[in-house]
């Protein structure tokens, strides 16, 4: 089962391409790094921890 790689921050709408730093909770709510920091790494939807979204093979920075 793969993660749903959402392409926009749910708070500010910033584009989040697959290689961008993004933060997700266990329900795959997705936020940019700035919004995740502003929310103290807590998902406003479920109250869960926001962690850095992993990058998929082929999208990793060299």
Primary descriptors:
globular, 13% strand, 1 helix, 3 strands, 62 residues, 3-stranded antiparallel sheet, mainly beta, single chain
Q: What's the arrangement of secondary structure elements?
A:
Blueprint (H helix, E strand, L loop, with lengths): L21 E3 L5 E3 H6 L12 E2 L10
Antiparallel strand pairs: 1-2, 1-3
Describe this structure in a few short sentences.
With 62 residues, this protein is mainly beta. The protein has one helix at residues 33-38, and strands spanning 22-24, 30-32, 51-52.
Q: Helical residue percent? A: under 10%
Shape: globular
Rounded radius of gyration (Å): 11 Å
SSE pattern, N- to C-terminal: EEHE
Question: How would you describe this structure to a colleague?
Answer:
The protein is mainly β. Helix content is 10%, strand content 13%. The chain is globular, with a radius of gyration of 11 Å. The N and C termini lie far apart (26 Å). The mean pLDDT is 89. A hairpin with a 5-residue loop joins strand 1 (22-24) and strand 2 (30-32). A 3-stranded antiparallel beta sheet has the order 2-1-3. It has 1 helix and 3 strands, in the order E-E-H-E. 21% of the residues are buried. The longest helix is centred in the middle third of the chain and has 6 residues, at 33-38.
